[in-house]
Automatic annotation (TrEMBL):
Native source species: Chloracidobacterium thermophilum (strain B)
PROSITE patterns named in the record: GP_PDE (PS51704)
InterPro entries: GP_PDE_dom, PLC-like_Pdiesterase_TIM-brl
Residues covered by the GP-PDE domain: 13-294
Record protein name field: Glycerophosphoryl diester phosphodiesterase
Chaperone keyword on record: no
Amino acid sequence: SQPGCGQYPRGRKINIAHRGASAYAPEHTLAAYRLAIDQGADYVEPDLQLTKDGVLVCLHDTTLERTTNVRTVYPDRARLETVDGQTRRVWPVVDFTLEELKRLDAGSWFGPQFAGEQIPTFQEMIDTVRGRAGIYPEMKSPAKYAALGFDMPRALLDVLRKNQLDRPGADPRTPVIVQSFEAESLRRLRRLGCRLPLVFLIDDEAPGDWISPAGMRRIRRFAEGVSPSKQIVLQTPEVVRWARAAGLSVTLYTFKSNATGAFPDVEAEMRHFLYERDVDAVFTNNPDRFPRSPQPK
Ligand code: G3P
Ligand code: CA
């Protein structure tokens, strides 16, 4: 493998199914994960949240109302949340036990053919994907969970250990890479003895002071890869070179079928970033459109 970019095979571009094949099936359901594998994804991405009883489950949001029927099933369990002067009702994942979450429908919002899909546990996700693709978990809001007394990095490592997936190369058919927007959670994984490749996500709306050659070198102290949003690369194209010079792999998010602007479609957009800007990997809702070569067929 490439020195300093150890988590990806040298020269091979990597197709990561973002929330599963989430353009075609409800994100973070086993249906979306299975479809991603059928469509040729190299890795499947579960975002992780914690239940009231400390179980890792696969969901992007910290609350349930966007992707489940929680309003109907638990109408009296909402909290009021005020953001920018607007108050709304939310149903935090962490207010519910796993048993309670399993009563929710996580598929119907996307289409009636997905009625009955449940929120999967991380264990169920592993059982579905193992042997067929890699697993690319994201710890969501670990600081928020820490403030509630949960140790998300430890919970993640415990599940991976139980499945003997906690070491690089433990299962060559199922490599594992861990990602987070929060540097401290990656450092915590390291302190807990985790030797898996780690990838640090950077949001264009809150890029911190990471987007510089020195920033990339600081990331290399606790991670093997960096994953900026594609907007960051458009604004600061040099970031790819700075990351490589620091020994980091580069993974971009997120590529969707409604690509706009300079690209006719999502495949052309991914091709541009992978082969002209030479990034290693992309998170995409459309793993079936991933370009395996620089030239269109
Ligand atoms: O983890 C990469 C990408 O998924 C980050 O964005 O909000 O979709 O988790 P988000
Ligand atoms: Ca994610």
